[in-house]
Amino acid sequence: MAHFAQLDENNIVTQVIVVSNDDAPDEATGVAFCKALFGSDTNWKQTSYNSRANTHLLGGTPLRKNFAGVGYTYDAGRDAFIPPKVDTPFVMNESTGRYEPPTSPSQKGMVWDLTTHDWAIPLKPSHTTTSDSVKHLTWTEISADEGYMWIFPVNYPAADDPTLLLYEWSDSVYEADNTKGWVLR
Fold this sequence. Notes:
mainly beta; 2 helices
């Protein structure tokens, strides 16, 4: 299947459609097919579902750096679909065709904060269970590869436990015995 992005007068993607390879054996034929369906005054560019950050997910040649999405811009000078800029300080990575934060996070697992325009530890999850709060969650490094995340101080019951989904965290149980914390609902 082939994918085609419709562009408005400012080269902003307004929709992406799927076209049979029989109707689009090449880009020019696919564009003609789209114009026959949507009007001769429409503007179309082929896009590849498997193109992300100038990499083809299946090992092929990427097409226009990124799979087009509604709101993306087609940049004719770069011959690339560029996603919207997430935040003011983001800068264009010419290799990937994507806007990126101007710095790298100091720890894996951090998120970009749109208020401070900088990297931050994600907010501690709030009251996620039906009982106690989650005040004992800690920001902990899981591994060098996985980075950091919020975790409870006691491991969740074994994954082969058939009652696995029946547990919830209890701060009061943990405060009474810091080797426990998970309780059956």
